[in-house]
TrEMBL record:
Superkingdom, taxonomy of origin: Bacteria
One Pfam family in the UniProt entry: PP-binding
Matches recorded under InterPro entries: ACP-like_sf (IPR036736), PKS_PP-bd (IPR020806), PP-bd_ACP (IPR009081), Ppantetheine_attach_site (IPR006162)
Official protein name in the record: Acyl carrier protein
Residue ranges annotated for the Carrier domain, each copy included: 8-83
GO biological process: antibiotic biosynthetic process
A GO MF label: phosphopantetheine binding
Length: 86
């Protein structure tokens, strides 16, 4: 189990995690780049992101929750909310 807290969700760490998953350079994963429209993320990649976030932060994300996030900043806020509720 992770010992992550809402304050431990580092934006640059998330950016790196997303970049590896998307197979893109980190500088292309800007704070407000839309995952599908700007970065070409498909549903399979979204599932991989969910799994990586759950493993890294020790949270459980439902499909419906993850569908609400479309940018790096919204991912950080979702993970922070999940950690705060834990």
């Amino acid at each position: 189990m992770s010992h992550s807290t809402p304050d431990s969700v580092d934006l640059e760490e998330l950016r790196s995690l997303m970049a590896v998953t998307f197979e893109l350079p980190p500088e292309e994963v800007t704070d407000d780049a839309h995952f599908a429209a700007d970065l070409g993320v498909d549903s399979l990649t979204a599932l991989e992101i969910t799994t990586r976030l759950e493993d890294r932060y020790g949270v459980v994300l439902s499909d419906d929750e993850f569908k609400t996030v479309t940018t790096l900043l919204s991912v950080r806020e979702l993970v922070r909310r999940k950690l705060a509720a834990a």
